[in-house]
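Posting here for the record, re: coenzyme A.
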Amino acid sequence: MKIKKFKSKSHLKYKLIKEKLDFKSLDKIISILKSENGSSILANLSNKNITKYLNIVIKQDNMSLFVVKNSDLIGYAIVTEKPEYLISNFKKLKIPFLIDLIIRLKILTLINIFLSIIKIDTLFINLRNKEIVKRSLNLNLLAVKKKYQGIGVGTKFLKFIIKKTKKNSKYISCETNDKKSKEFYEKKLNFQTIGWKIRVPIFINILLKRI
Ligand SMILES: CC(C)(COP(=O)(O)OP(=O)(O)OC[C@H]1O[C@@H](n2cnc3c(N)ncnc32)[C@H](O)[C@@H]1OP(=O)(O)O)[C@@H](O)C(=O)NCCC(=O)NCCS
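Prediction output follows.
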């Protein structure tokens, strides 16, 4: 059931998380991650490893975890100053994460990691845009709890995130394989699709916005 606009948006709080989260909030984020960003690498890890990942995001200066709250936690986002930090910040966890995915038979996720390692996944992005994306602020993951979607929470949340994180970046980039969220980025936030990444089972759109 969709709640009414005036009720849901009037007392929302958008927050940058700087300190370790309590178990309840972590649980809420993991639940939104698994139901709304189910095809992401992170969602395919065990809860224990997702928690480790989120705690690293909170600690790092070059990454940020944001949440939206009313009485409940209803949305979250992970942003990194540059896409490369998504790999370099997690070097120590690379092997445990891979073992986790193998044990849990997350074959598609493992294939996609392989495509990314051998760098053929960015075949459909031109060189100039590849360079811009490399230097851009990267919205790694974003989701709003299902019953709060489509009432403007995501738009306000992302505008807040951009305001808080843009600093020296000229662009923000993100990826999605979902038609509705592509529409969200293009229609509500003026992102432009600049290419596609090869992924199984479907390609993902790469989007960019000047900030
Ligand atoms: C994409 C997402 C963050 C947008 O947040 P939101 O609060 O639903 O977005 P808003 O209400 O501010 O904007 C709504 C617009 O986004 C688009 N949209 C995307 N997903 C939608 C959804 N589930 N329901 C309604 N609109 C959606 C529509 O174009 C809509 O425009 P319209 O109302 O004119 O039709 C949210 O829908 C979501 O969490 N989706 C699942 C996870 C996801 O795809 N994340 C992005 C990739 S990492």
